[in-house]
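Predict the holo structure. Ligand: flavin-adenine dinucleotide.
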Amino acid sequence: MHLSTTRESMEFDVVIIGAGPAGLSAAIRLKQLNPTLSVVILEKGAEVGAHILSGAIIDPIGIDTLFPNWRKEEDHPFKTAVTQEHFLILGEKRAWKIPNMLIPGVMSNRGNFVVSLGGVCRWLAQKAERLGVEIYPGFAGIKMLYNAVGAVAGVATGDMGVRKDGSHGLNYTPGIELMGKYVLIGEGACGSLAKELIAHYALDRKSCPQKYGIGIKELWEVDPVRHRSGLILHSVGWPLDKRTTGGSFLYHMKNNKVSVGFVVHLDYRNPYLSPFEEFQRFKTHPTIRNVFIGAKRIAYGARALTEGGWQSVPKLVFPGGALVGCAAGFMNVPRIKGVHNAILSGITAGEHIALAIASGRAHDEIIGIEDSWRMGPIGRDLLPVRNLKPLWTKYGTKFGVILGGFDMWCHQLSGFSLFGTMQHKKTDAVMLDPSFMHDPIKYPSPDNILTFDRLSSIYLSGTHHRDDEPSHLLLKDKELQEKSELGVYSGPSTRYCPAAVYEWIEDGNSRRYVINAQNCIHCKTCDIKDPNKNIEWIPPEGRGGPLYFDM
Amino acid sequence: MKDAKQQTMEQKWQGDMKIIVGVKRVVDYNVKVRVKSDGSGIELTNVKMSMNPFDEIALEEAIRLREKGVATEVVAISIGSAISQETLRTALAMGADRAILVVDKRVLEPLEVAIVFRELVKVEAPNLVIFGKQAIDDDSNQTGQMLAGLLGWGQAAFASAMNVKNGEAIVEREVDAGVQTIAVRLPAVITADLRLNEPRYASLPNIMQARRKIIEEKTLSELGITYKPHIKVLKIEEPEARQPGIRVNSVAELVKRLRQEKNLL
Ligand SMILES: Cc1cc2nc3c(=O)[nH]c(=O)nc-3n(C[C@H](O)[C@H](O)[C@H](O)COP(=O)(O)OP(=O)(O)OC[C@H]3O[C@@H](n4cnc5c(N)ncnc54)[C@H](O)[C@@H]3O)c2cc1C
Ligand code: SF4
């Protein structure tokens, strides 16, 4: 981490990290309530939306709360309503459609919209700037700053122009300190500052460990005759084996675009598994592949999502701020939706902080944020589905989905769950089995029409890091990596990373671990899944990373 | 021995030397550009735009000349729609003293850009104009040369090092045979090559300040320019996709396959 000793410092009322739906909504609410507040947002991507990747189908409950009149506006991004939905269970050659009447109400997508979340964030950012929020893309928050009594007082940005060896380049520019009465962390899943804060204040003392999935996504421009605006499709089952859970999404957006992606739950056991290859295989299923005839792939990316839900949400508040959105983990897993809750949590945090500042407070714990979420709309969204993920993990796809569905029905009809609240016991990292317990998986070669390899894929993500900057992927113990990651687990990082960053290269008799950090697309999977927690992801120099345009 | 004329020139340059830098908003160099499905142009919706990297280098050089005390004022100028203000804000954050936006939504061809700058030169009376050697979107590599021609000024294209002294710019240019060093009398037009310098970062405090600065605006009609385009873009096509490579196990196999399958060697 590169922190200069002499940094300029600037004062704001509220400092927000991350221009995702959570951070932007918090900023907007703050300025709606009190236009005189100074609110600043730091975003590590080169522009708002550059690091945003989602499905996405949005439940408008959040946006309705933030802008009750948005439907009357012309330039809003919610132009494609969901018109038709299918839920499929896939076998290798066949597909079974679950009748919509069997699907619990909470899972229905009626009234929702198919969007690019990047586009939604750009729209929100414009609104925020019109209200006077200052947004600075290209700057990552890299370290929390604490005051003398141990409360959060601000955030430091990273230095720029540092060379690989740590020395200062000719254009070296020190980072600065952004001080705020309150700091909100809206970094999304597995945020690096959120991690620091959760550890520092033991915010997860009373919650289950957070669980994650990796979502890999492609955007396609399809043949107009195969396009059905508003049609959405989800599947579980093939190509994953019985014990590996996850599923696909395929959304028909406007302008002949199709968003297709695959989520693999990161508690998978087989170290030979490659989420990327599973996704490529999924597209070849007989009921899926036809959409892509004559189509062209135009974008690629990946991002982790939180899956722990209700049980894994840590304490949200700490002295001087709060976690919002998926940095706290408000994702609803069976619905694969987190945006609505990210927006709602941003709004709640904004409201409580505006009040606190109005009454002259600063740097304290705003307990109202903590106390309100479980009883409010976010809690009502997450509580009924809280057992699906644990059941799925425990019983595999077939029984897990059936039991989970049954449990959601029970909750819908009686308000209670059959299973109480099931706990997540282990982190995803420790779920990996040693490789001797599994056989290597032989994945088919790409045809470069429908299926691809990782290198040609990351090319489409536009990812970039300055050649000479220090690696932002820290390997804590080199020997351990060779002894365990390679020796015991046969190098899972060479497979779980969707950007082919990690390689074990044969060098005569020994093996060398190569980290191609410049290819990283900031999905955070390595930080989550390395079996020894030996890899740490820290924010690279601002602007580095993918350049998503419509993800 | 310097003659009298040269000495007064030198004093003049020392007194006030103004530099104009042309900065263009282009698709960011990390973006994988895509041709629109109807072939009418490049897909620009939601695509990240940035200052043309060669213009960044040109601007950096101008700012350094001011920091060295050689120049007194750096004016960044862009032609484009209102959104090009972003590019000019970056220029201000890097250290330009003033910024001018010539508001025009069309895509201008190099000669028209050169004419716009000729008119601005009349108004601003700079001693030096620096451009990037080319914009990475259309790769024309013409504007600097055309402006020098229109003004009857000296020019040094593809500068990889430069210095201003005694009313002259000493410029190194990378040419096929090595490095050529030339001297051009000011006023002159210089275009910046990649190796001229490594542009600075716009720091966060400077970006914040730049947001509060005023950007002057002008239109082509204010400058008295009417122009009939000479170039029409007929079609834009993507290059043919590269064939995927194959992996061979030995040199012998490589040679064999090149012979048999590609009829090479
Ligand atoms: C494949 C996939 C499909 C999904 N599908 C859907 C869906 O269909 N519907 C739905 O509602 N939800 C979906 N989700 C979930 C949804 O995307 C998230 O819940 C939502 O994006 C969370 O919003 P957020 O603002 O908390 O975080 P994010 O959207 O992740 O935004 C965080 C922002 O903070 C920035 N940032 C992070 N760290 C720093 C730092 N240190 N300094 C500066 N900036 C930083 C990031 O660059 C990013 O811009 C999906 C997620 C994935 C991965
Ligand atoms: S290096 Fe880590 S964060 Fe980067 S793309 Fe690979 S798995 Fe994701």
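Chain B has a mean pLDDT of 91. The longest strand of chain B covers residues 154-165.
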